[in-house]
């Protein structure tokens, strides 16, 4: 294969999702009566705040998908950790402890997933499908089948549109997501751990033969991703200012879609944090744009569905040629 | 693999059997009434629950032993789950069902099946496209929408731009409120322009907040008035308005009540809520069911009342009773 082609291909891989995002924004600006409003900093703030939950989830999901796994329990984990954070606040714990407990419970759920997958030899799809039910059920149980209302704390300010102090420009949660994404990208690309995640997803048998303790690595991956899902749950609670055990049903599908649109492969071994973040933004802009143009919901659903398939088809076509 | 499947099948069967052994046997006079709400998380449904228990307590005290079983789908838009709940109660053989249907068509078949199995149904809150039920006990939703429109017209002095964020596709009660609002505005306040009326808030506070943010970005600067037709859409819109600092700067009329809304009325962030009487709805729902089971004639349609609540009339005893139904007295 000639090297210049490989270079073009790599470049496309990197830039493809960005082009997609620009295309979505461009098309909506043309459709809009008042494009200045759609392109305003305020609308950018809105979209970024709305993306945070999916984006933080997608960081964890990217790890899992690169390693060749899948997690269907994210929506349930978000609901569960949101409820737990709300309950912790109501129990009189300081907000920082409540935040930490939400994140840690998310991590715990992930570790359980990892153990079920490695010790009980249940494939990830089934193991996390089970957790989807268990997590949601526990959330409803703990919340006593009701939403958990909380008094105002600084946790409620994580995703406000106009942050305080105002020099932050966007909600603190957006900055948290950006910092986490950069960290995760560095870890994936430049550390032994990151290399191993890719190795595991590309060829598990070979990875094991090379001396990687694959089982332990998997538990780490699901646990680490779980911490991120827990944080996403805290963000969800912050947005609603209540712990809602019914929230985020189906969020895992949005999150998986973000990773896949961003170039992640469900066969493992492929994916990038930047791509997933762009994927999440594409979906948020689609939702935001459709609403502001005044299109009914079904058009939006059709478009998002089509984009997922098109994105993956282009990806397949590219990898078949290389 | 097959063995595992069989094992699970057996497990479900066992679970199903143990479940259906629960109520209904012996004690031949005791009436079991299943009350099935659209969801259990909104405060609205808690009031219905409390009202239904009040009715059961009263009837029991009068010598007709009545037990209320409360069970609903946890999400407000899961029709499939609600259908299964109705089917489950019909199979279980409760004396009667009091149902708030999630959908005016999807629940027609389960209700008529239940009727054929000898379990009659009283419909509450939201309509059903069928006549195979005992009675329809609900708010006059159209009137509620009209009250909201009158308030909006009064707030805006009959002119301005108004945005309506609808609740969800296929929900009969909220559609009637929206239509009541829209037609009253068009008829009585020709000076009011409706800028966006085709967007939906969706089932939860989260979807409602997202939709509100998107719409406010587009129309926020030009609208003087906003109407939302239920608790979750009003809550989502209120959160979105508070976030961008616009709460209180537009005339906002919502529907249903909760502590958050009462605070918002006090803070002038909400300028009117149309309040139903869910407590009365749960109460009359169970009473009507029992009367019909006892062979007494009942009306096919029973209105449970709506009222406009503003900062001015909030302190009146009538409104206070509506806003603070005695939940703790009956729940737990």
The gist of it:
The complex is a heterodimer of chains A (322) and B (332). Chain A has helices at 3-31, 35-38, 41-66, 74-90, 95-119, 124-142, 172-190, 192-202, 204-209, 214-240, 251-261, 273-293, 297-321, and strands spanning 148-149, 242-243.
What value does the Rg of chain A take, in angstroms?
20 Å
Q: Tally of extended strands of chain A?
A: 2
Biggest beta sheet summary of chain A: 2 strands, antiparallel
Helix content of chain B: 40-55%
Principal-axis shape of chain B equals: elongated
**Largest pleated sheet of chain B:** 6 strands, parallel
The CATH H-level superfamily of the largest domain in chain B is Response regulator
Description:
The complex is a heterodimer of chains A (322) and B (332). Chain A has 322 residues and is mainly α. Chain A has a single domain, classed as ABC transporter involved in vitamin B12 uptake, BtuC (Orthogonal Bundle). Chain A has helices spanning 3-31, 35-38, 41-66, 74-90, 95-119, 124-142, 172-190, 192-202, 204-209, 214-240, 251-261, 273-293, 297-321; strands spanning 148-149, 242-243. Chain A has a two-stranded antiparallel ribbon with strand order 1-2. Chain A starts with a helix and ends with a helix. The relative contact order of chain A is 0.20. The mean pLDDT of chain A is 90. Chain B has 332 residues and is of the alpha/beta class. Chain B folds into two domains: 10-138 and 278-303, Response regulator (Rossmann fold, 3-Layer(aba) Sandwich), CATH 3.40.50.2300; 141-276, Response regulator (Rossmann fold), CATH 3.40.50. Chain B is 47% helix and 17% strand. Chain B has twelve helices and twelve strands. Chain B has helices at 2-20, 43-61, 79-92, 108-116, 141-155, 172-188, 205-219, 231-243, 259-266, 278-293, 317-323, 327-330, and strands at 31-36, 66-70, 96-99, 121-124, 136-138, 160-166, 192-200, 225-227, 251-255, 272-276, 301-303, 306-309. A six-stranded parallel β-sheet of chain B has the order 2-1-3-4-5-11, with helices on both faces. In chain B, strands 7-6-8-9-10-12 form a six-stranded mixed β-sheet, sandwiched between helices. At the A-B interface, helix 3, helix 10 and helix 12 of A face strand 7 and helix 7 of B.
